[in-house]
Amino acid sequence: AQKITQTQPGMFVQEKEAVTLDCTYDTSDPSYGLFWYKQPSSGEMIFLIYQGSYDQQNATEGRYSLNFQKARKSANLVISASQLGDSAMYFCAMRGKLIFGQGTELSVKP
Amino acid sequence: EAQVTQNPRYLITVTGKKLTVTCSQNMNHEYMSWYRQDPGLGLRQIYYSMNVEVTDKGDVPEGYKVSRKEKRNFPLILESPSPNQTSLYFCASRIQQGNTEAFFGQGTRLTVV
Lengths: 110, 113
Prior knowledge:
The complex is a heterodimer.
Chain A: E1 3-5, E2 10-14, E3 19-21, E4 24-26, E5 33-39, E6 46-52, E7 60-61, E8 64-69, E9 74-79, E10 88-94, E11 99-100, E12 104-109
Parallel strand pairs in A: 2-12
Antiparallel strand pairs in A: 1-4, 3-9, 5-6, 5-10, 7-8, 8-9, 10-11, 10-12
Chain B: E1 4-7, E2 10-13, E3 19-25, E4 31-38, E5 42-51, E6 54-57, E7 65-66, E8 76-78, E9 87-94, E10 103-104, E11 108-112
Parallel strand pairs in B: 2-11
Antiparallel strand pairs in B: 1-3, 3-8, 4-5, 4-9, 5-6, 7-8, 9-10, 9-11
């Protein structure tokens, strides 16, 4: 069975600083992948970034990057230079059936 | 424009009154699924469909039904809603199951009183 765990219900970060959102996973599949989604207060789900288990380098998309550590079974999202608009819920999800973690609510302080 | 459309966006209903939440996608995606979102629990999958006439239970299917008669539509049916089904519901579609990103509908906030 697949499982995604996000242990940080809420986090604060100062504007312009970097922040890391944790995600750990458990799967018996030899090939897997992790997604990150953002959910602002308006409610829509926005795809941010994806990385597969066989990708050689950590994925990056603009200010978002994935710190993928297979030995630790973690796929943490790093947001550089936080902006006020980054305040939202963030969800980690595993590909396949797309199983989600509990989410982390990020608040960016001016 | 590629999109997933859910209706209604908001619904308040009474216990036991059957309701349907519609979901339609215009991307010719094979894979569609329904989730419910509750505080502290993230998104939990209710049902999914890998193609027309192929549906299967997710993690929390009790009290829900689905059908996939056409590729574009995947309605969620609550035959006899109960207050514990008060939640935020999302429909999602993907080209296929796998490493393809999911496109989500706008969400349906359901309240059962």
